[in-house]
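Appendix B, Record 12. Input sequence as logged:
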Amino acid sequence: MPSSSGIWAIASSTGWAISGSRWDRTAPLTRRDVAAIQRGLGGLGHDTGGVDGLAGFKTRRAIGLWQRANGRRETCFPEDGMAAALGR
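Logged structural output:
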């Protein structure tokens, strides 16, 4: 069984991510899209570990906290429309 970082590498390279007990297709976002999400989360006080356009652990944790606080499904992954919802 791959480690969690191994699973993340597989998900990143294939465009799939685990959500609960099933795999979902992830949005085809660019680094620019993820950076906009990071800026939006940072503006709300979430720690994303900086703006680099990569959805690493801190960014994904911040996304999950924001999703929970806003009544959204907690995927902890960047999604289409998230930057707009964050005002970025």
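Residues 1-10 have pLDDT under 50 and may be disordered.
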